[in-house]
């Protein structure tokens, strides 16, 4: 089911359901506490209970409502009476999870839980319901920050999502299907799951894969290690699959959250290309097409399309160009391109070496902020 990346908006609209931070980590609101040590006795079944007792009170339920207009054509009567039936408004309700990162009420959750919400309420484990204010939403990574008024609130501790290994314990806490304070346990199944791995569009995120049960309503809840430290934000399940859950690495969530807290938004660099990973089959299809393109290699990343009026178009990139390197880094797959662009600051120059019709050529591209139209 492999699909090509849409224009390098790379906002990869998540065809997943359920669940989808300043770089130097100096923002005290979401600064990580790193402790990668394993528990002294993983055979002790009580370690899960201890983690829940340690963290459970900092995991919250998030209820959101939004009012949407429903046109007459969407209703049964409207199909018969058309314009005679007036527009009406409908309240849509959503349920998700989140976790408190500061004692004064900063909460991290998924963007799709609170985006466009007219009202957000946060329910604590002790039953209190508090009004939530959306500080910022980043649809590109599906990270959002919500604030509630409070002091001395329970908080989570952060672990290190950079050194995770498949097979390590993973614990998810959240509110799946509206069932509050549900705990599931499994392992880290894989790390750095990319677009190519999943075979579907997704955000600019390399996911943590886990077999800990994650269901709709777990969105925004924490994925924890055996020490009770947050290593990810539960964000997605593949519809119809079993034992496949995904989480945003907490380092990524922290970086995005810090920017949302400071600026209220996150500016993602944008180039404007559609890419594909070359295979013998793709090479054959391109060479046999009526595009006029001829490809002479079976591996690498090929540009299949260039967005009009984009940095790539202005720099002279063309369909059929094969990306050899970016800023001196040899390119092997699409994931590398995504990472290198995402870690570039908006306005910076990127030095790209391409192979065009068998000849190498150096091209400089100045990135711009991802256009809003490419985030919807």
TrEMBL record:
Similarity comment: family membership: Belongs to the peptidase S1C family.
Any GO MF annotation of the entry: serine-type endopeptidase activity
Keywords: Hydrolase, Protease, Signal
Classification via PANTHER family: SERINE PROTEASE FAMILY S1C HTRA-RELATED, SERINE PROTEASE HTRA2, MITOCHONDRIAL
This protein's record includes keyword Protease: yes
Residues making up the signal peptide according to the UniProt record: 1-23
Pfam families reported for this sequence: PDZ_2, Trypsin_2
GO biological process, one term: proteolysis
UniProt-listed InterPro entries: HhoA_HhoB_HtrA-like, PDZ, PDZ_sf, Peptidase_S1_PA, Peptidase_S1_PA_chymotrypsin, Peptidase_S1C
Domain PDZ: residue ranges: 285-358
Key word Methyltransferase present: no
Protein name according to UniProt: Peptidase S1 and S6 chymotrypsin/Hap
